[in-house]
Amino acid sequence: EMPEKIPVDTTAQGGITFCPNTVYIKLDSKQSEPALYIMHVIHEYFHALSCSTKGRILPSMWEEGFTDYFATKVFTNYTGFDTDVFTAFPYEVRLVRHLSNLIPEDILLSIYINKDEARLKQKVDEKLGLGTYDQIIQDMNKVFYDSSYTKGFVSNSDIDSSFSRVENLFEIKNYLKMQ
Predict the structure, then answer these.
(1) What gap in Å lies between CA 5 and CA 118, rounded to an integer?
(2) What is the spatial distance between Cα 76 and Cα 39, in angstroms, rounded to a whole number?
(3) Which residue from 94, 96, 31 is spatially nearest to 62, judged by alpha carbons?
(4) Which of 20, 61, 114, 117 lies most in the core, judged by the most C-beta atoms within 10 Å?
C-alpha cells in the first residue's frame, strides 16, 4: 500500500509524507493552537525518519498508530502537554499503548523503524494467541478506513464495536494474567 494510492482527505490532514524525501505540512492561518502545528511537524518527521530504503511498508493503520504514538510520547515528554488531544489517530494510538503493555517499547520502535510486519504479527500472536493479529487487522482496518484517515475523525456504532472487539482481546489477556 503506497501512500500516494491511499484515498487521503488532504483537508483533514495536518501534513503528509511521501517517502523518501517529500514532506508537506499544512500551515493554517486560522489555527489558534501552535502546539497542534508542532505536533504535526513531529508526526511527519517520524514518518520521514522511518522511511524504508528497502521498500518495506506497514499497513496504514499500524503506520499511523506507531507514528502518532511515538510523536505524542516525544511531544509530551518535552513539553508536558497532554498531547492526546492532538492525535489524529486516537484508536490507533490506544492500540499501540495496549501493545506497549505487552511488548517492550524498544521492540515496538524497532518494528516501526524497520517496517517489520512479520515480527509484529509474531509478537502479537505470541502475546495474545495465534490468529489474534489477523483479528486485530480486520477490525482496525474497519476503524482506520471508516474514521480518521480517509474522512477526518468520525465515530459510529460500527467503528465503536470494531474497536471494542480489539480492546476486549487485551482485557481478556489482562484478566488471564491476573488468574
Answers:
(1) 23
(2) 10
(3) 96
(4) 61
